[in-house]
């Protein structure tokens, strides 16, 4: 007599994926043959800029909670232009079982495509544990504008644990791979002078544009806690610290006005 192995415990949390596919429509614009959201990831078509399709991510429920795994997956075909945003800040919330939550963003840009990924800030709420991984794959002629903003805790509360990684390849070759960990349980020193130095908001702006091959931006300092760093790629990375989300956005918007072409 054989005994069946015990059944695996059911997965906790929500599993949801939002899928977006943009293509050039042949008339100078961009069409969206695929726009599908699940669970807390609702998608809405909006008016974009010239020749651009706009999509807004609308949170349909509180997420990500501990144990959730959310994925946003967007593809821009040859010559397509896509603007992605979110309607409100994302709150990383603690779950009942103490499990971490995962939030993945995957962007694929084909030849001549252009994508702007400009979500609202991610707020790490006290007691939460969130792992964020943004993966971007670009063709050599694609253009990207990407903004990430993280806020450590709501007003008057400490941060949860946040691990955030950004991985970018261009033409199959690595362009940028960096990781940030902060909050309770992060490696020691994350809030020291070589880390966030007591600031509650941290963000970055990444611009990838073939025009930088012949006209690269110069290194610069923007204010007291922001730096412009040209990357071999061609690309430029702006990193910034601030006391709160409002001041962080002001710095990143200024950098965007200077370097976005």
From TrEMBL:
- Which InterPro entries does the record associate with it? UreD (IPR002669)
Write the record's keywords in alphabetical order, separated by commas: Chaperone, Cytoplasm, Nickel insertion
Q: Does the keyword Cytoplasm apply?
A: yes
- Give one Pfam hit by family name: UreD
**Protein localization:** Cytoplasm
Has the keyword Chaperone been applied to this entry? yes
Assembly behavior: UreD, UreF and UreG form a complex that acts as a GTP-hydrolysis-dependent molecular chaperone, activating the urease apoprotein by helping to assemble the nickel containing metallocenter of UreC. The UreE protein probably delivers the nickel.
Similarity remark: Belongs to the UreD family.
* Chain's role: Required for maturation of urease via the functional incorporation of the urease nickel metallocenter.
* Name of the protein this chain belongs to: Urease accessory protein UreD
Q: Which organism is it from?
A: Streptomyces yangpuensis
Give me the gene this protein comes from: ureD
